[in-house]
Write a structure and sequence with these properties.
mainly alpha; 3-stranded antiparallel beta sheet; about 10% strand
Length: about 350
């Protein structure tokens, strides 16, 4: 998340200016803020640094970011204007004159997820954004019901004339992810659905901006991630080649008597928490995909952090199941343990040095 402290002060909006734009009083602005602050679990939230900064914390005086101003504008539209139909916002964030402004806010949200690699998966050269971050882009907060309704709307082609969204094109279903992950095309389709099924003018306007900008914006954000993925693919191919397509744990490979065998690459120190090791060939071993699944299941899932020491411990604790059926179980177990220990000896000094630097800096 981009911090307000890193934003130019000129991008912040004063309470007085915001009150003028929304055609309310300054006292109303702070009254709305008090309402937002009362219940942290409701749908109305203003977070310090994300939505505003204090210019005088003792007296609660604030300046607002674009995101914060939009949240207050949305609140005014859905409460004040709804209760007083005669009241018209002469100057609003959601008219045509401010379309570019709203679009820039959408772009900021998409850019935010670029640094959250756990929220983006690269598959077949395409970026897919997980459910939580898709809701963030679409400005749905925790409204999974609206996301579900948008997906169902797009799958009913007779309502809008568009063909149903497709697996591998608009979305994918990943293990250990809650919900689907969506491509730029998928997010665009969801934003189009939200414009149809939602009554809120702000939601319609926001998702109109998403529809117009998501393809290009997500393309730019995902470029470095796609490049990283390509480099990672080259490293995993090299690991399999060095292993001569054999599993480095069991020494099994695909054959006419073992046709369901598939080889995958495992990072001893996981990619998410040890990014500096993700392209290090000594950190990547070729392993039977069934064993790979078994190890991560033993660890508690693919989303759990793991280390080479964890893998070594797994080899010892689960040795009966892992090496059962090998030509020489004892010899193969000893060779596998020696292989992992050798890699730890090569990798650990680098990790220890980084941890020492981190401790000193703290």
């Amino acid at each position: 998340m981009n911090k307000v402290s890193n934003q130019p002060k000129s991008t912040l909006i004063s309470a007085e200016k915001l009150a003028d734009i929304l055609r309310v009083s300054v006292k109303d602005i702070y009254r709305f803020c008090d309402f937002f602050d009362e219940d942290p679990d409701d749908d109305w939230t203003l977070n310090v640094e994300e939505h505003f900064i204090y210019i005088n914390k003792k007296h609660g005086a604030r300046k607002f970011t674009k995101a914060g101003a939009l949240e207050l504008a949305k609140y005014v539209e859905e409460t004040v204007d709804k209760e007083r139909p005669w009241r018209k916002l002469i100057k609003t964030f959601f008219d045509r004159r401010h379309k570019k402004y709203v679009r820039s806010c959408v772009m900021e949200r998409v850019a935010d997820i670029g640094g959250l690699k756990k929220g983006v998966t690269i598959q077949s050269g395409k970026a897919f954004v997980n459910t939580q971050q898709t809701r963030y882009i679409l400005r749905l907060a925790n409204r999974q019901d609206l996301l579900k309704a948008a997906l169902e709307h797009e799958q009913r082609g007779e309502e809008h004339g568009r063909p149903p969204m497709k697996h591998d094109d608009h979305f994918i279903d990943l293990p250990d992810e809650t919900g689907l992950s969506y491509s730029a095309n998928g997010i665009k389709r969801l934003s189009m659905a939200l414009q149809s099924i939602c009554k809120s003018r702000s939601t319609k306007s926001w998702n109109s901006a998403v529809s117009e900008s998501i393809l290009q914006t997500l393309k730019e954000v995902s470029k470095p991630l796609i490049a990283d993925n390509k480099k990672l693919s080259e490293v995993t191919k090299l690991a399999k080649k060095k292993a001569k397509q054999y599993c480095e744990v069991t020494k099994r490979k695909k054959s006419n008597t073992n046709l369901d065998f598939s080889l995958t690459a495992h990072h001893l120190y996981d990619k998410s928490n040890y990014e500096f090791f993700q392209y290090e060939i000594n950190n990547v071993i070729a392993i039977d995909s069934k064993l790979h699944n078994a190890f991560h299941s033993w660890m508690g899932g693919f989303n759990k952090s793991c280390t080479a020491e964890d893998f070594l411990n797994w080899l010892k604790v689960q040795s009966d199941e892992i090496f059962e059926g090998c030509d020489d179980e004892v010899t193969q177990e000893a060779a596998a343990i020696a292989n992992i220990k050798r890699r730890i000896q090569l990798l650990r000094p680098v990790l220890d040095a980084r941890e020492e630097v981190s401790e000193v800096s703290e």
